[in-house]
Amino acid sequence: MSGVRLFVGGLTRIDDQGQSTGIWKQAISGPVELGIEGLAGDVQADRRVHGGVDKALHQYPEQHYRRLAEHFPAIAAQLLAGSIGENVSAGGFDESSVCIGDVFRLGRARLQVSQPRSPCWKIDHRYGTDGVARSVAELGLTGWYYRVVSTAAVSSGDQLELLDRLPGAVSLAELWQVWRQHRPDQETLARLCAAPGLTAGWQKKLHDRLHWLRANVGAALPDRPSFHPRQD
């Protein structure tokens, strides 16, 4: 088990066109209510790609900041827990040890892992450095989202404990690695589409890519487009 730190934030305007972000978070000690759409007091700027019941909480492994600091030493002092916009920071768990559909207990609340976080250009803006979002994607240091299965008041210092893993569960690391492959194996894609607990949005992305590969098998497939940071 691992004790957590919790973070919430409001909106910050980031340009003259009126774009905003909720990436700037502040640590809270609690107790704070955790509802089906996240922590009380936490706000998302773009509800099309942030928040909602399937992305109620974002967890980011604390140890990832050390790896990012190795790649971006000039901003190492900024790479602190909470700074990439997560709600939950904890050590120990990472994408290789956490699976889609895993059910965790946080205090008296119950959470289920729903999907990885796809890095957003706002990460680069947050740190004032180009390339951070790309490195997050390339290194697979994405963190993950939870849906809230059972609501409760939670506090920093609460224990995070894995309660249940579904049969056929797929690790976040495998999902991310296959998704980023140039021409992934079709049978593997089909298996990932059926990963228990995966969000409908990710199921559709995987299914659409599988359908395209099946339709073009044996053809001269075009190169996959280069990475463009986004958030979903």
Number of DSSP helical runs: 6
Distance between the termini: 28 Å
Low-confidence stretches: 220-229
Biggest sheet character: 9 strands, mixed
Spatially, the strands of the biggest sheet line up as 1-14-10-11-12-8-9-2-5
In percent, how much strand structure appears in the residues?
Answer: 15-25%
- Rg calc: 18 Å
Number of beta-strand segments: 14
H/E series: EEEEEEEEHEEEHHEEEHHH
The portion of residues assigned to helices is: 10-25%
- The overall average pLDDT, rounded, is 90
What is the structural class? alpha+beta
User: What characteristic shape results from the CA principal axes?
Assistant: globular
Write down the oligomeric state.
single chain
Structural features, described:
With 232 residues, this protein is of the alpha+beta class. It is built from six helices and 14 strands. The strands form three sheets. A nine-stranded mixed beta sheet has the order 1-14-10-11-12-8-9-2-5. The longest helix is centred in the C-terminal third of the chain and has 16 residues, at 200-215. The chain starts with a strand and ends in a 17-residue tail after the last helix.
